[in-house]
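Hi support team,

I've been running sequence recovery on a batch of backbones for a student project. Most finish fine, but this one hangs at about 90% for roughly twenty minutes before it completes. I'm not sure whether the input is malformed or the queue is just slow. I've pasted the structure tokens below so you can try to reproduce it. Let me know if you need the job ID as well.

Thanks,
M.K.
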């Protein structure tokens, strides 16, 4: 991606979405903006409902999720890409070229403090039980981040609306994330995935990612997968 925020590869990343041979619509891939955050949060909520349910996170959590994506967007705008059909955001991919730097930037931009304030003043509707569960999992994530190679270039989140899955959108979004991480100079890219997430694992394996190890949080196991950027890329339709 270029410094002004346009992904060098994104203008070409448009494709036709066809359903039953009719209703052809263009899918556009572009860098996200702050206006997309509520739609991205809604996609997160539908795509990771089980995890949210596990942490007893309620409906107001969409605000917290939008703020977390907002933190990432302001720290590293090129890392957040959306897929759009018409004016509807139907998928997103979030990646960081340097996870530590992103966290630090979020701190210095005051975003962590603002989120903490909103949390403590009840704006996220999150109770102590949820807070304990989320904090414990975050600590497990940070501990796990040091295992199996502490590579800082990471795809952080990827989701496609259930109604649009299985049509190549996830592959295009993930390919754009990897391309971005290559432009950041990443030599090894690392991600985490649940062992039973067959679609995501299969997608990552098709890009050359291999399982390097695992660690656990309160919901179970996370597999750590890595890939060298020299790995051959599969054809993206
Ligand atoms: C993972 C996800 C983003 C894939 O998006 P998608 O748009 O459906 O994926 P695509 O249509 O581009 O398919 C890409 C590849 O994913 C894999 N895949 C997708 N759906 C699959 C399924 N139901 N079963 C097995 N593999 C599947 C395949 O390898 C596929 O490649 P192929 O079409 O060449 O076989 C989507 O399933 C999703 O949003 N899941 C919920 C959120 C999530 O789990 N995110 C990942 C967190 S680590």
């Amino acid at each position: 991606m270029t410094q002004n925020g346009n992904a060098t590869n994104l203008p070409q990343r448009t494709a036709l979405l066809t359903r039953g041979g009719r209703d052809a619509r263009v899918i556009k891939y572009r860098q996200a903006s702050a206006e997309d955050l509520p739609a991205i949060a809604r996609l997160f909520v539908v795509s990771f409902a089980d995890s949210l349910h596990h942490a007893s996170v309620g409906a107001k959590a969409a605000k917290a999720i939008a703020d977390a994506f907002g933190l990432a967007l302001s720290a590293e705008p090129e890392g957040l890409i959306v897929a759009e059909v018409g004016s509807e955001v139907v998928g997103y991919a979030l990646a960081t070229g340097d996870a530590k730097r992103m966290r630090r930037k979020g701190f210095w931009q005051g975003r962590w403090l603002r989120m903490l304030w909103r949390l403590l003043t009840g704006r996220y509707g999150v109770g102590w039980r949820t807070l304990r569960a989320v904090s414990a999992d975050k600590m497990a994530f940070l501990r796990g981040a040091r295992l199996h190679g502490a590579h800082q270039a990471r795809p952080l989140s990827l989701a496609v609306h259930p109604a649009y899955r299985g049509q190549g959108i996830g592959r295009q979004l993930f390919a754009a994330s990897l391309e971005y991480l290559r432009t950041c100079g990443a030599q090894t890219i690392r991600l985490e995935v649940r062992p039973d997430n067959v679609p995501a694992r299969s997608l990552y394996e098709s890009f050359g990612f291999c399982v390097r190890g695992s660690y656990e949080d309160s919901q179970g196991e996370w597999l750590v997968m890595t890939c060298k950027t020299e790995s051959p890329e599969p054809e993206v339709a």
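--
Follow-up from support: It reproduced on our side and the slowdown came from queue contention, not your input. The CA atoms of residues 15 and 77 lie 23 Å apart. No action needed from you.
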